[in-house]
């Protein structure tokens, strides 16, 4: 496990969407600080390859998605530029979600050398328009986590609220 996962340091701030942004759907990702630390630690541990995993939780009626857990996955592409969630890990995460009365909310992955913004490949390969797509940039000294909704070839950043 990475030192980042056990460090008592405060969680770095996460940027949010400006209220003027036109939206695909007003949405907010509610992310427990412990899950945030697990995701960032997995991304750091996976470096120099892109790391990936799945988000488990519930969608709220008011556009808020509550994350309850993160399920790290193997990057079947074994690449520093792209990721593919190992299908068996997807199945395990889906079963884990079902066992706790939740659903798969989305996917997270790292960008090892670029900003936390969806690449053209990320947009083209987004499997579910209802999902939340979390990207952790490892480009700078402090990891940056952002979340997006990707629909119809468009991506839009959504607010992330740490809990």
Biggest pleated sheet: 7 strands, mixed, barrel
Q: Could you tell me how far the N terminus lies from the C terminus, measured between alpha carbons in angstroms?
A: 23 Å
Average pLDDT: 87
- Strand/helix succession: HEHEEHEHEEE
Describe the structure.
- With 163 residues, the protein is of the alpha/beta class.
- The protein has a domain at 33-143: 3-Layer(aba) Sandwich (Cytidine Deaminase, domain 2).
- 22% of the residues lie in helices and 33% in strands.
- The chain has a seven-stranded mixed beta barrel.
- Strand 5 and strand 6 (144-151) form a beta hairpin.
- It is globular, with a radius of gyration of 15 Å.
- The model is unreliable at 1-11 and 13-24 (pLDDT under 50).
Helix-strand blueprint:
Layout: H1 3-6, E1 28-31, H2 33-46, E2 52-59, E3 64-73, H3 87-99, E4 103-111, H4 120-124, E5 132-137, E6 144-151, E7 154-162
What labels would you give this structure?
22% helix, seven-stranded mixed β-barrel, 4 helices, 163 residues, alpha/beta, Cytidine Deaminase, domain 2
